[in-house]
Design brief:
- By secondary structure, the protein is mostly helical.
- The chain has two domains: 51 residues, Orthogonal Bundle (Arc Repressor Mutant, subunit A), CATH 1.10.10; 145 residues.
- It contains ten helices and no strands.
C-alpha cells in the first residue's frame, strides 16, 4: 500500500472510531486494525496522535472545511448582500444538521471543550476561527461600524447551534421544553436560524 493510501486509511479510520468509540479509546493498535494496515505506517505517516488529529481536522472538521466549496467573490459588496445572507444561513443550518447527524463531529467538539488548553485543540480552534473570519470579513464590509453587532449574533448562533446538537443527541433531552429530536422541532430550529439572520440583515442594512 502506497504512502498516500495508508495516510488516508488512518485518517478515515480515526473518523470512524471517533463516532463509535470516542477519542480516549483510540490507540495505535486499534487504528491499525480499523485501517486494515500495519501500525508502522502510522508512525511513518504521522509519528504521533497529535499530528493525526490535526490532519483529520483539516479534512473532516466542519468549520475547517465548510468555506472550501463557497464562491466568495464580491460577497462584501452591497449588491451581493442577498447572496451573503443566503451563504450565512446555509452555513449555520448545515452546521446544526451536520453536528446533529454526525457523531464524530460531536465528539470532536466535546473533546475540544474538555481539552481547551491542549496545544493541538487550541490550534484546531484557531483554525476554525480563521475559517469563520473568511466569512465575517464580508459582513464587516457590508455593515461597516455595525459589523461587530453581526459578529456578536453569529457568536450566539454558532455556539447555540453546537449546544442544541450536543444536548439533543448526547443528552436526549428537551431544550426550553422543545425536543430537537422531534423532526418538526428540528425544522423549527432551522427556520429560526434563517429568521434571525434575515432580521439582522434587514435591521443592520438600514443604518
Amino acid at each position: 500500500m502506497r504512502r498516500k493510501n495508508t495516510k488516508q486509511a488512518f485518517t478515515d479510520a480515526y473518523y470512524r472510531m471517533l463516532a463509535e468509540k470516542g477519542y480516549a479509546a483510540i490507540g495505535v493498535n486499534g487504528l491499525a486494525r480499523e485501517a486494515e494496515t500495519q501500525k508502522n505506517y502510522y508512525y511513518r505517516d504521522f509519528g504521533s496522535k497529535d499530528v493525526l488529529v490535526m490532519e483529520h481536522a483539516k479534512e473532516y472538521d466542519y468549520w475547517c472545511t465548510c468555506m472550501d466549496m463557497i464562491n466568495t467573490d464580491g460577497l462584501g459588496k452591497p449588491e451581493k448582500a442577498d447572496r451573503l445572507q443566503e451563504v450565512i444561513i446555509a452555513v449555520l443550518q448545515n452546521q446544526l444538521f451536520d453536528y446533529y447527524t454526525d457523531a464524530a463531529l460531536r465528539e470532536m467538539i466535546t473533546h475540544s471543550l474538555d481539552k481547551a488548553m491542549d496545544p493541538v485543540q487550541r490550534a484546531i480552534s484557531d483554525r476554525r476561527d480563521a475559517e469563520g473570519e473568511r466569512l465575517l470579513q464580508y459582513s464587516d464590509q457590508l455593515f461597516g461600524k455595525y459589523g461587530k453587532h453581526f459578529r456578536a449574533m453569529m457568536g450566539v448562533l454558532v455556539g447555540g447551534t453546537d449546544f442544541v446538537a450536543l444536548h439533543a443527541r448526547n443528552n436526549r433531552s428537551a431544550i426550553c421544553g422543545l425536543d430537537p429530536n422531534d423532526p418538526r422541532v428540528f425544522d423549527l430550529f432551522l427556520k429560526l436560524i434563517a429568521q434571525l439572520v434575515v432580521g439582522a440583515f434587514q435591521k443592520l442594512r438600514k443604518h
